[in-house]
Amino acid sequence: MGSRPSYGVGIGWRPEIAGFVEGLPGLRFAEVVAESVHAHGELPTGLQVLLDRGVTIIPHGVRLSLGGAEPVDPARVEHFAAVAERLRAPLISEHIAFVRAGGIEAGHLLPLPRSREAVDAVVANVRRVQAAVPVPIALEPIAALFDWPDDELTEGQFLTEILDRSGAQLLLDVANVYANARNRGTDPAELLDQLPLERIAYVHVAGGAEHQGLYHDTHTDAVPQPVLDLVGALCARHVPPALMLERDGDYPPAAALAADLDAIAKASGYPVIT
């Protein structure tokens, strides 16, 4: 990731599936929500076992609000830095989104207008984070159920400008790409041709479901075939260093999780880890 070794297929570590994750014989890469890890004290047993095995664990933030108009909260950045150090992480990741404004917490990742003002805000906050965290950051474009009116930039232009100006790497979520394209009525593969794929640090893969005519990136459903097809389309263009299954809630039996991991491996050409 920092030096771009190949990690293959991984999974997001969650306490509810810690035993399953620990038992994956071929696992070399996992991700943990940064805000769920204490900066001091003992790590959860499952995480410590993975570290002891030499598994690379990436802290993934959900609360920095990089796209907010206000500067990122120094205390949150300090916590992120401490977690990265504890996990000996070669990389951190966060979202291109905002989660608070005027002191009000939204509780959700909210999309930014694709404006140059928004680019400025994200780049400034990324630089603040990078001044405090000594490892690279990868930025994840989110799934959004709406677009702001009068966008100045296309999605590809918006993301590329943020990456170019901030020096950040890309955390590409193919499930988000699929969800946005499906809800907009566009071809998801078109975005792949507009992004600097060589800057991908790793890739998220997740399931979703349609509700009231909109496709939601739920993380609680099996990975659908169109998302796996998009993994294949991505890897035909550029093979990323790692791909990771995200599952957050409504956890299925181990066999179903293993089937998702095997399907991602098959779509990407990486070895199975189950």
Automatic annotation (TrEMBL):
Source species, domain of life: Bacteria
A Pfam entry, by short name: MbnB_TglH_ChrH
Xref: InterPro entries: MbnB/TglH/ChrH, Xyl_isomerase-like_sf
Protein name (record): DUF692 domain-containing protein
